[in-house]
Amino acid sequence: MITVNRNEQILQQIKGGLIVSCQALKTEPLYSSYIMSRMAFAAKEGGAVGIRANTPEDIREIKKEVNLPVIGLYKADYPDSPIYITPTEKEVEELTQVNSEIIALDATNRVRPGGLLLDEFFKKIRKKYPNQLFMADCATFEEGMHAQEIGFDIVGTTLSGYTEDTKGISLPNHAMIKRLGDALTVPLIAEGGIWEIEDLKKVMKEKVHAVVIGSAITRPREITARYVNAIS
Question: E strands, 162-214, where?
Answer without folding.
Answer: 188-191, 210-213
